[in-house]
């Protein structure tokens, strides 16, 4: 359209200029008039052209504005986004500066408090132990060729509940270090009860707690009949024969190089000190000494096969190896304390009253809660009554003594009544009724 308007304008302009020239040539007018006519013709010719040019420029401007309008809008949006981003960057930088300042303050605070004695003085045992073991684990491999340290913990079931929990926490702490292996020998029932007592508001079932500490639980088997007999044999067989024991007892005190007997030392010195009220006796001369109590006869130190066989039959009464050892130790003390005038009645080759001592000791060791009731029944029984009828008053006791009964020759209550006071002295219960008479007629 622009091209058409230009062509139309040029044609009009040429026509008008030609007409003005013709008129100026054929008319007789002054040059000034001719010039004005020509100028008027040119102006008239250029007026449509100028109008068209203006319109063309207007169209061009509108087209340009139409093309630039989206770009301008995008530019406005971009500038707004840029300004928003700049504001956000400024805010972030301000926040970062604040965080850096807070972090510096926090680190300064923590370092100051960590080095303060306020906290170090309040560290618990577990924290101190952990710190020490961490140091030990770091240093030990550098100075010694040690792959593992095995720690054995025993008798934990003899500790109070709070101490049990402390030890369990320490064990759990040690297991965090690869260097340590912990072996704990304990009655698990005591552990569970201790945890219930300590965490009574938090813990209902302690098994899950213990499983986090003990990776490999292992329950020992109950003591068998064979194991009980082997244990009795181990603690009753003497390494020396009766003849060797007699020669040892008769050998007397060792002589000094000068031929005089050596002054009392060791157990004899203790006996001397006790006899004088705690002060050592003043020597009467170079060879003076206080005579010690005579040792028991050799046969009192040797347990016979008959006694050992009867002890074997108490396996149904004695529940644990510890109880078996207690049984044997008490029996040894009883038999060496038998007065000389009663030894024949006690011995297997004589009256055999050792049988009453063994049976009553088995009841004392194996039937703790029933001991007082059973011993009361024995004391109240007539001498000629059947001891098995007396013992039948305690539920389950005859069945536990069934194997013993076949090895006994004493079935009357009389010898058992005589031995109740002696045996009861080895109980933790204060059986005042069983006090041994001062004259020793029925006891030691």
From TrEMBL:
Positions of region (Disordered): 235-300
Organism the protein comes from: Phytohabitans houttuyneae
Keywords, alphabetical: Coiled coil, Membrane, Signal, Transmembrane, Transmembrane helix
Coiled coil (residue ranges): 75-102
Record field: compositional bias (Low complexity): 252-291
A Pfam cross-reference name: KAP_NTPase
Record-given protein name: KAP NTPase domain-containing protein
Transmembrane regions listed in the UniProt entry: 167-186
């Amino acid at each position: 359209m622009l091209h058409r308007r230009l062509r139309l304008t040029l044609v009009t302009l040429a026509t008008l200029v030609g007409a003005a020239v013709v008129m100026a040539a054929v008319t007789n007018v002054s040059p000034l008039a001719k010039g004005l006519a020509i100028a008027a013709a040119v102006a008239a010719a250029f007026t449509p052209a100028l109008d068209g040019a203006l319109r063309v420029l207007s169209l061009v401007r509108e087209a340009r504005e139409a093309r630039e309008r989206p770009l301008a809008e995008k530019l406005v949006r971009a500038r707004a986004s840029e300004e928003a981003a700049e504001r956000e960057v400024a805010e972030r930088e301000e926040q970062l500066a604040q965080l850096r300042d807070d972090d510096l303050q926090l680190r300064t605070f923590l370092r100051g408090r960590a080095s303060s004695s306020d906290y170090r003085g309040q560290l618990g045992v577990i924290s101190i132990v952990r710190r020490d073991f961490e140091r030990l684990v770091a240093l030990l491999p550098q100075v010694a060729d040690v792959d593992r340290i095995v720690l054995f913990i025993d008798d934990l079931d003899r500790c109070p509940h709070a101490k049990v929990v402390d030890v369990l926490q320490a064990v759990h702490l040690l297991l965090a270090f690869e260097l340590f292996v912990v072996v704990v020998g304990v009655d698990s029932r005591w552990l569970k009860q201790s945890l219930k007592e300590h965490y009574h508001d938090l813990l209902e079932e302690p098994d899950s707690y213990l499983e986090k500490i003990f990776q490999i639980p292992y329950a020992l088997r109950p003591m068998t009949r064979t194991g009980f007999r082997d244990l009795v044999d181990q603690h009753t067989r003497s390494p020396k024969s009766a003849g060797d024991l007699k020669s040892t007892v008769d050998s007397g005190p060792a002589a000094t190089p000068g031929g005089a007997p050596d002054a009392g030392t060791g157990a004899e010195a203790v006996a001397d000190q006790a006899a004088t009220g705690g002060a050592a006796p003043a020597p009467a001369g170079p060879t003076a000494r206080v005579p010690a109590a005579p040792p028991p006869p050799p046969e009192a130190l040797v347990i016979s096969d008959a006694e050992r066989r009867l002890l074997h039959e108490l396996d149904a009464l004695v529940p644990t190896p510890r109880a078996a050892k207690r049984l044997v130790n008490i029996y040894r003390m009883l038999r060496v304390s038998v007065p000389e005038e009663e030894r024949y009645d006690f011995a297997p080759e004589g009256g055999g009253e050792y049988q009453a001592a063994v049976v009553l000791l088995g009841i004392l060791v194996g039937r703790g809660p029933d001991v007082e009731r059973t011993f009361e029944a024995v004391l109240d029984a007539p001498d000629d009554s059947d001891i098995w009828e007396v013992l039948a008053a305690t539920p389950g006791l005859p069945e536990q003594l069934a194997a013993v009964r076949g090895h006994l020759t004493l079935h009357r209550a009389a010898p058992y009544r005589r031995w109740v006071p002696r045996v009861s002295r080895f109980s933790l219960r204060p059986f005042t009724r069983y006090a041994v008479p001062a004259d020793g007629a029925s006891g030691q």
